[in-house]
Structure formats: C-alpha cells, structure tokens
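Here is one chain, start to finish.
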Amino acid sequence: MPFIEAAVEQFRIICAPWGKEKEGKTHFALSFPEPIYYIKLDAGGLEGVVDKFLGKKRIYVSAIETGLMHGVTAAETLAQFDKDYGEALKLASQQSGTVVVDTYTQIRQLIDSAKLDEVRRRRSKQQKVDEEDVKVFPFDYAECNARTGDYINQAWALPGVNLVLIHRAAKVYDGKGQEILGQFKMQGWSEVPAYVGVTVRMEHNPQDNKFYATIESCRANYKLRNFKLPDPDYETLAGLLGKPA
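Its structure:
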C-alpha cells in the first residue's frame, strides 16, 4: 500500500466516560453532536435524561435485549450489536454524528462470555469432560482483547465520527481481597484508555449539587490529565481538546 501524505483531520472526540450510577454519564453522552445513534444495553439507561434533549436534536435508539431472561445467548447478542454498531457508524460518518454504546462494560462481558463458551465447548469434546471442568487460560483472552479494540478502531477509521463508550464503575480491593471504601475504577477492558482519545471519570458532588468530569487520559494533550471539568458537555470538552472555533 502506498504512503499517503499526512493532513489535518476533521475534529471529533472518541472517549470513554465512566462512573457510578446517576453520575451524569448519559447526559454527557447526549450532549455530543447530532445525529446521535444510541445503542442501549443497560436497562433504564436513558430514562429521565433523554427527555431533556428531545426536540433539540435527533436521537435514534437501538435497544438490544441481553441475558437469559430474554432467551438470547451472548453470541446472539453480540451478533445483533455487530449489525447495529456497523449501521450506526455508517450513518454517523455521513453526517459527522455520534455513536454511543451504553455500556461498553457489557460489550466486553459479552465478548468474554461468547468466546470462552466456545473454548469450553471445543475443549470439552476434545478432552471428553464436562464444560464446567474445562480450564481457561490467559491466552484464551487474546481474541477477546483484539475484538474489543477493533470496535474502537472501526470508529477511528471513519473521519468525523464521534464515539462515546460508557463504562460502569467497579469497586477496588486490596491485596487481601478487602474492599477499599470510596475507591472505584473503570469496569471493563483495562486497555480501553490506550485506544480512545480521552477517558473521563464522571462524578456528582452532593455538596454543591454539580456534576464534574475528571480527565484521566488524553491523547491530544497529556497536560490535561487530572483536569476537573465542571458541568461537563461536548462543547466544553471539545474546547479543551482544541476544537477549531
């Protein structure tokens, strides 16, 4: 493949906001440029928030059913996500819109479940043992990691597409397995910050009743790390990242 001279690319944001419930993640995602293609796996993720934006911008929602209660396997859910995600990226790329995945934590869990179920079935036949007795090794996650990163790379390959990958928060434990009270981390694939442009922790401060976003990693400007942004939305974050006026 021939080399192509580098040029200034169209501004867009590919980010991973994370936080506990009711910390402003959905509101932040819906502040991004329209049209917004919202892929919803988290039950109730839009309730009480999307109403504030209806009539002001175009928002399209795909609600994907997950779990045994709906009678679908992890592999079937992922197949539906692949279809919806691909369509959302295509549509967003045509109009410099935004794709939101709520939550990417669940996508990673689905990838792991689907792949490891496949591994267990194959090895149980080879080893002639029950699937529950099949061992899973660290190298079995290589394909899971590649697939998790590939979804993000697909967005990078399309100029002008904004991507918001919402993540849940996970409790932090010490070396003895004891919960460290008050400490949380992004729940999901640990390599996500290396793939996205910016990672932010969303928080609500009950003392002043305001929402904040703390930038934890930033590809465009490493000096923004630990910068705390009050009342976070797309425009304020874009201004920090150097969006042309």
